[in-house]
Amino acid sequence: MSALTAFDAALLNAGAGNLNLLKVSSILPPTTDYHEDLYIPPGSLVPIAYGTYTSANKGETISAAVAVGLPEGNTFGVIMECSGTCTKEEITEHIKGMVKEAFEKREILLKEIKVAAVQHNVTCNYGSAFAGAILWY
Amino acid sequence: MSALTAFDAALLNAGAGNLNLLKVSSILPPTTDYHEDLYIPPGSLVPIAYGTYTSANKGETISAAVAVGLPEGNTFGVIMECSGTCTKEEITEHIKGMVKEAFEKREILLKEIKVAAVQHNVTCNYGSAFAGAILWY
Amino acid sequence: MSALTAFDAALLNAGAGNLNLLKVSSILPPTTDYHEDLYIPPGSLVPIAYGTYTSANKGETISAAVAVGLPEGNTFGVIMECSGTCTKEEITEHIKGMVKEAFEKREILLKEIKVAAVQHNVTCNYGSAFAGAILWY
Predict the structure, then answer these.
(1) pTM of structure
(2) How far apart are CA C60 and CA C57, in angstroms?
(3) Which of A22, A30, A49, C80 is most buried by its number of CB atoms within 10 A?
(4) What share of chain B is helix, strand, coil (3-state, %, to 5)?
């Protein structure tokens, strides 16, 4: 396994392994709908905000998270991504703070934060954690 | 503040903080118009060429620049991006050289170089410099 | 020459230097046609899967490769990219293994692997190797 095939395996676990991902920065367009299990045909070109961490250190705990901050009213929201050598609980707390900071800076009221976080313990020569939010325009 | 929220703050200062940015390499399509203050709705997906530098070293001077080389005639131009631990003056000189080199390699005549450069002195735990050229197709 | 202008020179050699490249992850959409010399107008925005390596070590041998795994039947395929300080032969072997691993993980039958690999010996202050597969939707 290489760094890229570990990342590929993490993508497959997340349900995004058969898409062509375009990494974007992190704004939630106004009036976006939320779908947890949207079917997107393989090979589609999809914008995605994601956090990922790939490690070659056996035994290491790695995490990745993505958080969507939903606003009050009809304005846009903010998506943050994060990853590192920490636990799922730690990264969840950290990313919530990032979303709050981004809302404060924009002076937008925050209604709700949705977090997707994952933790992985590297058991072979490469491991990868991945969390993403696909934007389907 | 984290590396990503510092980058987010730099994006907001540049007027690109509420867009979904797709980082692209660096060709200016033929017959492109230039707008300094184009309004683009929040959450839009926009291709952008940019340079950015994020530092965790308090007191450090960081810079980012983007330069658009406009060609003679109706052909395409070249966009270069650059960033590092230097001053705005230094990065401006450096990026002009990069544009000239790219034009020479393509044997296209250079009419004008537009440079946007920014310098930041890191005052808290993270700082980020950002300069970009949005391509609105 | 800087790291970016070395990369730019490698892109020009590959025939992708006058396009706006959007780096994507690596799925070959079903029923894709293969064209070795497709003309794409300068400045076009094109998704591309690529491997690249830029080095500032004079005398170093660097390589980059991209491999397209074509499936049996009408399903999607997988594209892998790779780069490093090795020879063209080494990277070609390595990337074939990556494609096989990606197909096994997806339980798709592999019909053929197309590899584009390149080797470069760094002769001046910067050198860059690049191999890519453009996806033209």
Answers:
(1) 0.88
(2) 6
(3) C80
(4) 25, 40, 35
Distance from the A95 Cα atom to the nearest Cα atom in chain B, whole angstroms: 10
- Report the C-alpha gap between B50 and B116 in whole angstroms: 10
CATH 3.30.300.20 fits A3-134, yes or no: no
B98 with C5: Cβ contact below 8 A: yes
Place of tokens 């969840």: A92
Judged by DSSP in three states, B116 sits in strand
Closest CA to C66 of C133, C113, C123, C111: C133
For the question of an ipTM over 0.90, the answer is no
Taking the domains of chain C in order of start, what are their residue ranges?
Answer: 3-134
Hey, of A1, A7, A8, which one would you mutate to test binding to chain C, going by the most C CBs within 10 A of its CB? A8
**In terms of DSSP bridges, do strands C77-84 and C61-71 run parallel, antiparallel, or are they unpaired?**
antiparallel
Cβ burial B80-114 (10 Å sphere, 16+ → b, else e): bbbbbebebebbbebbbebbbbbbeebebebeebe
- pLDDT at res. A68: 97
Residue A25: the pLDDT is: 86
**Residue C18 forms contact with B (CB below 8 Å):** yes
Lateral strand order in the sheet of C20-23: C20-23, C45-55, C127-134
Active-site residue flag, A74: no
d(C-alpha C25, C-alpha C6), whole Å: 23
| A83 counts as catalytic | no
Check if C42 contacts B (Cβ < 8 Å): yes
Specify the DSSP class assigned to residue A9.
Answer: H
| Cβ atoms of C82 and C94 closer than 8 Å | yes
Average pLDDT (C18-47) is 92
Tokens 């537009």 belong to residue: B114
Comparing CA positions, the residue from A63, A27, C8, A2 lying closest to residue B81 is C8
Q: Are strands B77-84 and B61-71 parallel, antiparallel or unpaired?
A: antiparallel
- Please give the Cα distance from B81 to A109 (Å, whole number): 35
Nearest CB neighbour to C135, from listed A20, A21, A23: A20
pLDDT, average across residues B40-57:
94
